[in-house]
Design goal:
This protein is of the alpha/beta class. The chain is 33% helix and 24% strand.
Length: 399
């Protein structure tokens, strides 16, 4: 194997991704995508159309995958044998998928390596993910929209490209990878609508300065991605220190008032199956806020007054499944339950911290998941994995 650090606990463990490349200039993105999938534990086999070979050397893909590259179907019947290993979950990814390739897939034409692989994968009920890339005018053409609709009706996952000026670019690696995991997984949150409230809140001192906290929003980021991987339609309300992927709907909020207004608007506009509040929301507002920038040459005293808890406002407007996070030190389970008596959440995720052990950013965490009648611990792990386990618990409760 070439030099690559592979996560033993990566979400792609046990998954083979057969990636079929067609002739788009976006092909330059594929070696990087392959390496990301392999770092997360996946096996990758690359297959190329003749047009793809003219744009990228198969040798680069052999290096990236550490597997032989298929550029033609031979007597080895590669379009069949690639999908026969019952010991692995296999997904066919067609990326980049050109206008011409999508037309072939929808029309039943199988005269290239990607289209022949597709015809057999659909017959074997292998999950298929298609990542289009072309000029914007082509992807907005009514004919290709009809072709995409036809593929989706047949159970194929067709991703929306990123529209930038005149280009319809291949989606981000995060979007493609999450869509592969979604297509190959349990779909235990299929058709569920999940709102995740995450990030830090700010209270204005003057037009320039704010009171805030150290929350990064990364817990909510991973809650959202893991919800999507399980089949949910996900909306994040809030903010995050790292970019939220395109496949996660984002309603921005920063001040505590913005959080409350946008959460309530979302609750009134849509029927959510669960609301998960991991954000660090202020319980106070600045009573003596200045409308002008305060001079730094004088001493300033701030007066804070309590504001209504957003958790309670959510419960007044929402009777569905509510999950809240509590960050504290030294509280026992019963004390935590009492703190949320008015909002009556279905689950409380107790995230404790110790002196010198910050829970923020990429820090590892452990959770105590508290319900009305019991509690269970999720041992310390990365935020990606610990939130995946938490979403599994939530999925069971939403059945």
């Amino acid at each position: 194997m070439n030099d690559l650090t592979v996560r033993k606990d990566g979400p792609f463990n046990g998954i083979r991704v057969v990636i079929a490349l067609s002739g788009s200039v976006s092909i330059y993105r594929i070696p990087d995508l392959i390496r990301d999938i392999r770092r997360e534990g996946g096996e990758v086999v690359a297959c190329m159309s003749a047009d793809a070979e003219r744009l990228l050397s198969p040798e680069i893909l052999r290096w990236a995958t550490d597997n032989a590259v298929i550029t033609q179907i031979t007597g080895g019947m590669e379009h069949i044998t690639l999908f026969e290993d019952v010991n692995m979950r296999t997904v066919l990814l067609i990326a980049p998928a050109t206008y011409n390739t999508i037309g072939k897939l929808a029309s039943g034409v199988a005269d290239s390596v990607p289209s022949l692989l597709f015809s057999n994968a659909v017959g074997y009920r292998i999950p298929v993910v298609v990542a289009p890339a072309m000029h914007r005018g082509m992807v907005e053409n009514r004919i290709i929209r009809d072709n995409i609709r036809m593929l989706r009706d047949a159970g194929v996952t067709v991703l929306e490209p990123r529209l930038e000026n005149s280009k319809a670019k291949i989606p981000s690696n995060a979007t493609i990878m999450d869509s592969i995991l979604r297509a190959s997984g349990t779909m235990s949150l299929m058709e569920k609508k999940i709102m995740i409230v995450t990030g830090r809140s700010e209270e204005e001192i003057d037009p320039v300065r704010v009171l805030t906290n150290r929350s990064s929003g990364i817990t909510g980021y991973w809650l959202a991605r893991n919800s999507y991987r399980l089949g949910a339609n996900v909306t994040i309300v809030g903010n995050c220190s790292i970019g939220i992927p395109d496949h996660i709907r984002h309603v921005a909020a920063l001040s505590t008032s913005e959080f409350e207004e946008r959460i309530i608007d979302e609750l009134h506009a849509g029927s959510y199956d669960a609301v998960i509040v991991s954000a660090a929301l202020s319980d106070f507002e600045v009573a003596n806020r200045s409308t002008e920038k305060i001079s730094s040459s004088r001493e300033v005293s701030l007066k804070l007054k309590p504001r209504g808890k957003i958790i309670d406002a959510i419960r007044r407007n929402y009777r569905g499944f509510l999950v809240v996070f509590r960050l504290s030190s030294g509280e026992d389970v019963e004390t935590v339950r009492k703190r949320f008596r008015e909002s009556s959440p279905d689950l409380i995720v107790f995230n404790s911290y110790r002196q010198g052990n910050s829970p923020f950013g990429d820090a590892r965490n452990s959770y105590m998941v508290i319900s009305e009648n019991d509690s269970r611990e999720i041992p310390e792990n990365s935020k990606e994995l610990i939130t995946a386990e938490l979403m599994g618990i939530i999925a069971q409760r939403l059945r």
